[in-house]
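Open question from group meeting: does this chain pack into something compact, or does most of it stay loose? Before anyone orders reagents, we agreed to write out a predicted structure and look at it together. Recording both the input and the output here so the notebook holds the full record.
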Amino acid sequence: MAKLSDVVPRSEARDELDERLSQRFIALDPKGYFLIKVDSGSAELVLEHYGNTIDDKGLAHDPETGEVLSCKGGNGPRQPSAVYRGSTAKQVGIQLTEGDGPHPLSCLDHALYLGRELQKAEACLYEGTAYVQD
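Structure tokens returned:
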């Protein structure tokens, strides 16, 4: 499998654009968020889904405790509401979006983000490199 860097060379301008786009405001998905991991032992991508509620200020709250969720952790360990596993980004993406549902996504930008991250995680899985979620 060819690496993206072999096909599309990185440039400083492209990196700056990507960083700037990563800093824009994004409304949170009221259905929750995902933590993506690579399980090299089982050769699988693992997505843990965590539910949340969004208040009128756009802040995410733990649906069980009502506490505001911190991006830096600090809320203690939470249990995922669902775990999705698959050997490819496509396999996991289909689990998230097809079938009778209910589906854990309600925002198109969230679905696009997950698609990008799953592709990145899949590349790391097959290259044997570390995956860091953006």
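Observations to bring back to the group:
The chain has a mean pLDDT of 86.
The radius of gyration is 16 Å.
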